Amino acid sequence: MTLLEHLEELRMRIIRSAIAVFAAFLLCWSQATRIYDFLAQPIYAHLPEGERRLVFLGVTDPFLIYVKVSALAAVFLAAPYLLWQLWRFVAPGLYSNEKRLAGPFVVCGSLLFIGGGAFAYYVAFPFAVEFLLGMGEQMRPTITVTRYLSFLMTVVLGLGLMFELPTVIFFLSRIGLVTPQQLLKHFRWAVIIIFVVAAIITPTPDVLNLCIFALPTILLYLIGVAVAWVFGPGDRGQKLG
User: Fold this and answer.
1) Residue 239: inside a domain, yes or no?
2) Could you report the per-residue pLDDT of 179-210, keeping only the tens digit for each?
3) What's the domain range around 68?
4) What's the pLDDT tens digit per position in 65-80?
5) Which of 32, 86, 158, 226 falls between 20 and 30 A from 164, CA-CA?
6) In Å, what is the CA distance from 9 to each residue of 13, 86, 168, 226?
7) d(Cα 208, Cα 229) in Å, to the nearest integer?
8) Are the C-beta atoms of 55 and 143 separated by less than 8 Å?
9) Residue 238 pLDDT
10) In a domain, 151, yes or no
11) Domain for residue 148, yes or no?
12) Residues contacting 10, CB < 8 A, separation 6+
């Protein structure tokens, strides 16, 4: 394929992905209030029982909030199809035996993305909320729904994407940009970058919260090294040598 053909293929995949996300958004929009209630549960546990309602400051805020929560849910709902479109874009450059990995790639990639979001919602985010609210024990919290959801979406999407690290490494190894030796050689730099990204995702000075974000990602990096060793191009013996 020529460069223009590659760009046309990319455009088609992006359009199809956008249509899939929009269709998922319409489905999620019908359940926007339930999705919002689900996403608000982590903060409700730290508010007085009679005050478990977040506040908004603008007339359009409720509408925009429901748009955001529906869009967030739509991304996770459409994740398998998005990964399938990504696979279809790179499939022409793969060998016939490699194309049979489409199913495992889509399934594993989807589970990693959803698993990262679930880990963020059930583990990382509650720890961050508890720590941050604990610093204001002598104050009365008035939490706006826009800032709360912005923080939540950053954490959930951030960790969802970070959990895709083995998938990214798989692609880079397949096209020959990385090898297991390179990944292990630069492991210390990878750890630093992971901690920096984790610090951006969770704006807390607490080391425990930082480790909750960073350590699983480091483990996934090592899993990615194993993936590169198994599925990377070239002879396995040459990689180990």
Assistant:
1) no
2) 888 888 889 999 999 888 888 877 666 677 78
3) 3-234
4) 999 999 999 999 999 9
5) 32
6) 6, 11, 20, 31
7) 32
8) yes
9) 40
10) yes
11) yes
12) 89
